[in-house]
Design brief:
Layout (H helix, E strand, L loop, with lengths): L23 H11 L3 E3 L2 E3 L13 H17 L5 E5 L6 H9 L3 E7 L3 H13 L5 E4 L3 H11 L2 E6 L9 H5 L2 E11 L2 H4 L4 H8 L9 H19 L3 E10 L2 E9 L2 H8 L2 E6 L5 E2 L14 E7 L6 H10 L4 H11 L8 E2 H8 L6 H10 L4 E4 L2 E7 L3 H7 L3
Parallel strand pairs: 3-4, 3-6, 4-5, 6-7
Antiparallel strand pairs: 1-2, 7-9, 8-9, 10-11, 10-12, 13-15, 14-15
Helix pairs in contact: 2-3, 2-11, 9-10, 11-12
Zinc ion binds next to loops.
Length: 395
């Protein structure tokens, strides 16, 4: 969710506009934009396609958002949580959380664009929502205001491009045990297409790997953990998924220097090769094909998922089949920071792509712990070496 007018270093406007619903100019504008009503989930929103950006393809990501934030409220046993977001655009996330989610009673939305603010206010009125405050600040001023006036329980950071510049101000703006989700849409950088930018923005080196989606999520988790460490905050990964150009990582934020150090100690390297080999064991050449190894890292290699949270999310995801499938797969995923992409192995072996479930069944029968992965439904997570995975193709 972005606004076209967004600029990270826009001169600050230290005022908050709280537009009155009753004012005549607003009603005139409301009449104009009400003709552009769009329904997402149960929520009416008012994008105009020109000034306020709305991407209907992001609906799945927002379905996941509503389920996960509601699940988190349940996880910590609260029903009066305060939610905030600096990049609201149409306000669809906050409004959907209010209408379709549970556990939240206060919603502090913000956008630097005054058109967006008007659209949000119109949406709040049309959806009959209460407990909302709408700000018209640049993101940094908004986050600073949250930190000064009272930290929130949950925050969603969804800028255009990378969330990296907003990590520290965001982590400072939530309470201990707060919940934060970051969106990274600079997938060419996270896809290791622009290596220099990957080093500069994320402090990671890597060439292209076959477990790319998981690596993207882990690079995103790493930068949040590293930025948190500088200010003695531990953002503990609770969930991550990659959909199209959205890399989304969810964290429980803890004010704990020792926990932060534990997370930092899980920043490590993944070694992989063109033949499909992947391992956490240090090596310079591939033990299978003898070619030079691609070293990816340092990236977070610890747990990305809180099973306790996902168990609640699965229960709440019945109405969203792809969400349910994703949560269910994540819940049963073995704890390894990479997967084997069967389409890649099939290409090497010049064979048809087998069913992931068939290969997983065989590998488990061979005695290797194996599971599907929520990052790729044609991928396999297994403790078996790549040679054994390849041999399973012939059964
Ligand atoms: Zn190799």
């Amino acid at each position: 969710m972005t606004t076209l007018a967004r600029a990270p270093f826009y001169p600050t406007s230290h005022f908050v506009k709280r537009l009155e619903f009753g004012c005549a100019s607003f009603l005139n504008l409301a009449r104009i934009i009400s003709s552009m009503e769009t329904l997402e989930g149960l929520t009416k929103i008012y994008p105009d396609g020109k000034n306020i950006f709305y991407n209907s393809r992001g609906k799945f990501v927002r379905d996941m958002f509503v389920i996960l934030f509601s699940a988190y409220a349940e996880y910590i046993g609260k029903n009066d949580m305060k939610f905030a977001e600096p990049f609201s655009a149409t306000g669809v996330k906050g409004m959907r959380l209010a209408k379709e989610g549970h556990g939240f009673s206060n919603f502090i939305l913000n956008d630097i664009d005054s058109f967006a603010v008007k659209s949000i206010l119109h949406g709040i009125e049309e959806n009959n929502l209460g407990g909302f405050e709408v700000n018209n600040l640049d993101a940094f001023s908004f986050l600073d205001k949250l930190k000064t006036l009272g930290r929130v329980d949950a925050l969603d950071i969804d800028p255009f491009g990378s969330a990296a510049p907003y990590i520290q101000p965001s982590l400072r703006s939530v309470k201990d045990k707060g919940f934060v989700a970051f969106t990274f849409t600079d997938t060419p950088v996270l896809g290791t297409v622009h290596n220099d930018a990957l080093v500069k923005r994320y402090h990671v080196k890597s060439n292209k790997v076959y477990f790319l989606k998981e690596l993207q999520a882990r690079i995103a988790a790493s930068i949040v953990i590293s930025e948190g460490s500088v200010i003695n905050v531990a953002p503990v990964p609770f969930f991550a998924h990659v959909f199209e150009h959205y890399v989304r990582v969810y964290f429980q934020v803890r004010a704990s220097p020792s926990l932060s150090l534990d997370l930092m100690n899980k920043l490590s390297y993944i070694y992989s090769s063109e033949c499909g080999y992947a391992s956490l064991e240090k090596t310079d050449v591939c033990p299978y094909c003898g070619k030079r190894i691609n070293v990816s890292g340092p990236v977070y290699t610890g747990k990305l998922f809180s099973n306790e949270l996902i168990r609640i999310a699965v229960k709440n995801a019945v109405a969203c089949k792809p969400c349910y499938k994703l949560f269910h797969t994540a819940l049963n995923e073995i704890d390894l920071p990479y997967y084997y992409e069967l389409s890649r192995l099939a290409n090497i072996l010049k064979m048809q792509v087998p069913s992931a479930l068939k290969i997983i069944g065989l590998l488990n029968r061979f005695g290797y712990e194996s599971s599907p992965t929520s990052f790729s439904y044609s991928g396999v997570k297994t403790r078996a070496p790549v040679s054994v995975v390849k041999s399973a193709f012939y059964f």
